[in-house]
Amino acid sequence: MQYLSNILFVIVLIAGIGFFSKNVKKLSRNIKLGKDADVSDNKSERWKNMAKIALGQTKMVVRPVAGLMHILVYVGFIIINIEVLEIIIDGILGTHRIFAPLGVFYDFLIGSFEVLALLVIVAVVIFWIRRNVIKLQRFIKPEMKGWPKKDGNMILYIEFVLMLLFLTMNAADFQLQQLDAPHYTKAGAFPISQFLIPLFDGMTTSTLVIIERTAWWLHIVGILAFLNYLYYSKHLHIILAFPNTYYGKVKPQGQFNNLEAVTNEVKLMLDPSADPFAAPADDAPEPEKFGASDVMDLNWVQLLNAYTCTECGRCTSECPANQTGKKLSPRKIMMDTRDRLEEVGKNIDANKGEFVPDGKQLLDDYISREELWACTTCNACVQACPVSIDPLSIIVEMRRFLVMEQSAAPTELNNMMSNIENNGAPWPYNQMDRLNWVNE
Ligand code: SF4
Ligand code: SF4
Question: pTM for this structure?
Fold first, then answer.
């Protein structure tokens, strides 16, 4: 019987990890659909950013209540899962609490896991109340309807249930230890789960074993299921926050990237020795598309950004355009980018590795021109993001496409650009006229 249980455990483990690896491959393939981006600079600053922002969660505590509770859930969840290692070894070998020989240290570990589990439960309940009862503004914006709302709640339910299973498993185990049940080594400290023991009063050893084994199995299967849920959820950030903060922008925030092709053109125009009528060489490559109208025109860091977005809405709540009732929400820009990227990925899967044009694109089908032109390029969203996402860079690329490929800027901008071209200033009169007041 024990033998069968071990085999079943190995099968479940291989299936869980195998399916997760499949999704990781898909994720990496989708991110690589983006253009190249040179992120080989400032390595030490990048490592520092990752340690500070992803590991240290420094940007989370800007909002202390949510920040501290998030740290609690994050630390609690990660540390408690160290215990998963013991569960896996026990599951494969058929042992029980294999780390018990660590003695007092083991007791300390199990005891602190239990305290953390309780704190995670408290934090998760508060998070749920903030989302569903208090209905904080940033959680009820239009882009948070449907799946994003369900996903946010689902994560809280899963974490709550996993912690509860952990405590139930320990409580039943503790009771079995008191009853000297065979196989249940006396080990561990149970400062929290001991309070559940009255629930087991009068139960036979075999009933307790069933409860303990059921909680043990559900706990590990739940963790494997949660691991596989990540790909479909905003919770993917628990993994991607690390690479994302490493590859995040290290240049000054207001600095835009110049388009190489345009820079070369300008240099050529300023070079008196260049032939202004020279035609491009016969073997010159096709000029690159300016800006972005779809996800494949963005670079891979921007696509990584989209998968990393936690949908926390801190960017949107700081966005002056959103605050003044405009249609723009930087969070939606990131969610739309991820949704479109997923759609492109599914298209590739369905067409044997080739993308077959589907008549859709990120521009207009997901992100409207109204949203794009509402942006003031203030960078407040970039500053607010706790995982170094840059929604503005996507907005700028899409505007570039509209202006440089389609000449489709709003009239006011077109007028301003013509004025700059003709008068050297954004106003509709000559630069020299502007100085007439000096003569007066
Ligand atoms: S840069 Fe644009 S999207 Fe970001 S906060 Fe400012 S206005 Fe909003
Ligand atoms: S872009 Fe950043 S701040 Fe905005 S919702 Fe996503 S994670 Fe939150």
Answer: 0.89
270 and 224 inside one domain = no
Smallest CA separation from ligand 2 atom 6, residue: 309
Per-residue pLDDT tens listing for the chain (440 residues):
678 888 999 999 999 999 999 999 999 999 999 999 999 999 999 999 999 999 888 998 888 888 888 888 888 777 777 788 999 999 999 888 999 998 899 999 999 999 999 999 999 999 999 999 999 988 999 999 999 999 999 999 999 999 999 999 999 999 999 998 888 888 889 999 999 999 988 889 999 999 999 999 999 999 999 999 999 999 999 999 999 999 999 988 888 888 888 888 888 878 878 776 777 777 777 778 899 999 999 999 999 999 999 999 999 999 999 999 999 999 999 999 999 999 999 999 999 999 999 999 999 999 999 999 999 999 999 999 999 999 999 999 999 999 999 988 899 888 898 888 888 788 887 777 777 778 77
- CATH, residue 367: 1.10.1060
The best mutation among 377, 390, 397, 398 to test binding of ligand 1, ranked by most ligand atoms within 8 Å of the C-beta, falls on 377
Q: Best of 143, 333, 381, 399 to mutate for ligand 1, by most ligand atoms within 8 A of CB? A: 381
- Complete DSSP assignment for 305-374: HHHH-----HHHHH-HHHHTT-S--HHHHHHHHHHHHHHHHHHHHHTTT-PPP-S--HHHHTB-HHHHHT
231 and 296, same domain (yes or no): no
Per the structure, the count of domains in the chain is: 2
- Give the structural domain span for 349: 260-275+287-423
Q: 223 with 295, same domain?
A: no
For residue 390, give the ligand nearest its CA. Answer: 2
Quote the DSSP letter at residue 424.
Answer: S
Please tell me the distance between residue 180's alpha carbon and the centre of ligand 1 in angstroms: 63
